[in-house]
Write a structure and sequence with these properties.
The structure is a single chain. The protein has 268 residues and is α/β, with parallel strands linked by helices. The protein has a seven-stranded mixed sheet, sandwiched between helices. Strand 3 and strand 4 form a beta hairpin. Helix 3 runs antiparallel to helix 4 and helix 3 packs across helix 6. The chain starts with a strand and ends in a 48-residue tail after the last helix. 41% of the residues are buried.
């Protein structure tokens, strides 16, 4: 399974969530590949590597997928850092910014000259890399930057599932609409296999009124919230419910810190 962690707002816990969920899955015996899809290289740094000291990164692989796809398989194997037996990493640094410029150029060229010349589409470059290794891992987790750009689009096209880490703050929940809109468009036109959209509520404190109200907003959006860093499992109900974000939940919260539905019962 390929899972992207993305959100159009910074500081919501994307990298921390990717790292910790990946480590937990590896500890449970699953084979996990982490992909740092952010030019800041925060996931790479979290894994104990100095991003600017690395000669082989995701940027190299993406350029190779574009220019020399016949050598991609060998390059992927050389680039992957085997941190532990079950936890591996494709690292990133600021060279990824150059990759984004190349993707934008490819997109502009395709818009001007739409005839298919057999070259890879700019939104499917990361997919080509993932295809080389997905049979070797139980989970591939992709950490994205907070920018709603072609780099994030590549991650969504390559994924089966997307997790949106967000804090229970007004600005974070208000910014979800843009992220959800991009995911919807990808589902409709580029990747129909992206069937599950989840929200991961991070840094949640049930004792604060602000956190309660903002988490209630998500509750009213037909999502099943889990407390703190536990997964919101929305299953296949990813469409038709996001227009409810405008309202603020006024329902009571019980002593467990979970929202009480007007129909009874809790999120767990």
């Amino acid at each position: 399974m390929v899972i992207s962690f993305c959100c159009g707002k910074g500081g919501t816990g994307k990298t921390t969530s990717t790292y910790n969920i990946g480590a937990a899955l590896a500890q449970a015996g699953k084979r996990v590949l982490l992909v740092d899809n952010d030019q800041q290289g925060s996931l790479t740094l979290s894994m104990g590597y100095e991003p600017q000291m690395l000669s082989l990164t995701l940027a190299n692989l993406m350029f190779q997928a574009i220019d020399m796809p016949e050598q991609l398989e060998q390059s992927v194997e050389q680039t992957i850092q085997k941190t532990t037996n079950n936890l591996h990493l494709i690292q990133a640094n600021n060279k990824l910014a150059g990759t984004l410029s190349r993707l934008v150029s490819m997109q502009n060229t395709r818009a001007m000259f739409p005839l298919d010349d057999g070259s890879i589409a700019p939104e499917r470059v990361l997919s080509a890399i993932v295809e080389q290794v997905k049979d070797q891992y139980d989970y591939i987790l992709i950490d994205c930057s907070p920018h709603l750009d072609l780099q994030m689009l590549n991650a969504l096209v390559a994924s089966n599932r997307v997790i949106i880490p967000t804090q229970a703050h007004f600005l974070d929940t208000a910014g979800l609409n843009d992220t959800i809109e991009i995911i919807r468009k990808v589902q409709q036109s580029l990747n129909p296999n992206l069937r599950q959209v989840d929200i991961l509520l991070t840094m949640f404190m049930s004792r604060t009124v602000l956190n309660q109200k903002c988490a209630g907003t998500l509750w009213r959006a037909n999502a099943y919230l889990y407390r703190a860093n536990r997964l919101l499992d929305q299953s296949s109900r990813t469409s038709g419910c996001w227009d409810q974000f405008a309202g603020i939940c006024t329902e009571k919260w019980c002593s467990t810190g979970l929202p009480c539905s007007s129909r009874g019962g809790h999120a767990l």
